[in-house]
From TrEMBL:
Keywords linked to the UniProt accession: Membrane, Transmembrane, Transmembrane helix, Transport
GO MF annotation terms: transmembrane transporter activity
PANTHER family on file: PERMEASE-RELATED, TRANSPORTER, PUTATIVE (AFU_ORTHOLOGUE AFUA_7G01190)-RELATED
Membrane-crossing residue ranges in chain numbering: 41-59, 71-94, 100-122, 134-153, 159-182, 296-314, 326-344, 356-378, 384-410
Gene3D superfamilies named among the record's database cross-references: MFS general substrate transporter like domains (1.20.1250.20)
Record's keyword annotation contains Transmembrane helix: yes
A Pfam family hit: MFS_1
Organism expressing this protein natively: Knufia fluminis
Protein known as: Major facilitator superfamily (MFS) profile domain-containing protein
Cellular component GO terms, alphabetical: membrane
Length: 450
């Protein structure tokens, strides 16, 4: 396994724990120590993604126009420092400021890492690679649960402050490791010979998604915003992350209701959820890489457990501990679909400016969904959160419909291009066009993965 891939996985592991530190702290004594209400907690969850939305383009711009590894590692060190400062907060205002800054500096990770994966790996390899480092969200959930279960026994110092201090300290150290070992691009990877670098660059060109080009092409921006594929992915991600915004921030509070309000038992019950997330996120992209043109089908299939989990969570009494916990564990299957959806712009959109625009547009939906989601879980409906369950079901049904529609669109486009290529006598071999900045609409040899 290459070192750069290990570094991506480790960073995803930490960014998940750091992002979820607030929900772990909420299980313990955060609310009472800072005077935060359940309604304000919803806003703390949303504020993170307001900042993510605000900072996504500037941070991505910096990562693309300056040494990528230096920008990413600098952001990691900075957000680790913000977590350390969070431990000193004594009210909602302080927490809100820190959450905003945390969202701003974490915003570089997912879009930047998706671009890194598309640079280092060919189309067939991308889903399983993206899924592998997303699995470390699940590892983070498990390890965070184990770690914070142990921390929960601490006496004489607020547990929620220990959570932020631990997360922040480890993240700062990891950022320094990234600064030392993460390569900025293929040409600057010190572990490869010139011949190996040339081979890696040649492999990446077989994706036919265009080469790096700093010049902004407005025609490609217009093309991205008028591409039905991009809009379908936008709404798919919006609905997916509306689910995530609620489940990620209120899931542990739901489990706390099942655990009778015991914070340590709540933390222990949450540990298996990480194992389930690893299963969903690994198997979905793995199957998509194993079976050609199965991505959209798998995206739809992995929404089904979310539907079942939402129904169980809504209808089962909280006294049914096993049933409620099973619902909590399987509801997270939607994450596998998200991994595949986030990779599609890098795989299915040609032209550098168009691809960057499409990726930014999809992450706009990512942020909006996470902003909306927490507010569907109304404080007065605790611990069942009926409205939240209904929103999850509605969003899941819409995702299945959108995924099947996307599949039909991409199949139709490929068949149309095959007919046109046959009529025009287009050679499907690798030609000079792989080194040109052509969009998928402009390149007759481009074929969509579905």
């Amino acid at each position: 396994m290459r070192l750069d891939f290990v570094l991506l996985c480790g960073t995803y592991f930490l960014q998940y724990i750091d992002k979820q530190a607030l929900s772990y702290a909420a299980v313990f004594d955060l609310f009472t120590d800072t005077g935060t209400t359940s309604g304000q907690y919803s806003w703390l969850a949303s504020i993170f993604y307001f900042a993510y939305l605000f900072a996504e383009w500037p941070s991505s711009y910096l990562a693309q126009h300056f040494p990528t590894a230096r920008i990413v590692s600098g952001f990691v060190v900075t957000w680790g420092s913000i977590l350390l400062i969070t431990a000193a907060c004594s009210n909602f205002t302080g927490l809100a400021i820190c959450r905003f800054l945390l969202g701003a500096f974490e915003s570089v990770i997912t879009p930047c890492f998706m671009m890194i994966v598309s640079m280092w790996y060919v189309k067939a390899e991308q889903p399983v690679r993206a899924g592998a480092f997303y699995c470390f969200n699940g590892v983070g959930s498990m390890m965070g649960g184990i770690l914070f279960y142990a921390v929960g026994y601490a006496k004489g110092f607020p547990v929620w402050k220990i959570i932020f201090l631990l997360c922040g300290g480890v993240t700062v150290i990891w950022g320094l490791v990234l600064m030392r070992y993460l390569p900025n691009n293929i040409m600057q990877a010190k572990r490869f010979s010139p011949e190996q670098k040339a081979l890696l660059i040649a492999r990446s060109q077989t994706n036919r998604t265009g080469v790096y080009n700093r010049k902004i092409k407005w025609s490609q921006i217009v093309e991205a915003l008028t591409d039905a594929q991009v809009w379908i992915l936008f709404f798919f991600t919006l609905f997916n992350e509306t689910i995530n915004g609620g489940v990620a921030n209120f899931g542990k509070l739901i489990v706390k209701g099942v655990a009778g309000g015991d914070p340590l038992l709540t933390t222990a019950y949450g540990i298996p959820q990480g194992a389930f997330q690893i299963f969903w996120v690994f198997t979905g992209p793995f199957l998509a890489s194993k079976f050609k043109n199965s991505r959209t089908l798998i995206m739809a299939i992995y929404i089904v457990p979310t539907v079942i989990g939402a129904i169980l969570m809504w209808k089962l009494p909280r006294s049914n501990t096993a049933g409620c916990l099973l619902a909590y564990y399987i509801i997270g299957a939607y994450v596998a679909s998200l991994v595949l959806a986030l990779q599609l712009p890098a795989t299915n959109v040609g032209g550098y400016t168009k691809r960057v625009t499409a990726t930014a547009f999809v992450f706009l939906a990512y942020c909006i969904g996470n902003i909306i989601g927490p507010h569907a879980f109304l404080p007065e409906e605790a611990p069942i959160y009926q409205t939240g369950c209904k929103v999850i079901l509605s969003c899941a049904a819409a995702q299945i419909a959108l995924t099947l529609g996307l599949r039909a669109l991409l199949i139709w486009r490929n068949k149309k291009r095959d007919r046109e290529a046959a009529a025009a006598g287009v050679d499907m071999g690798i030609e000079a066009d792989v080194y040109e900045d052509l969009t998928d609409f402009q390149n007759p040899r481009f074929r969509y993965a579905y």
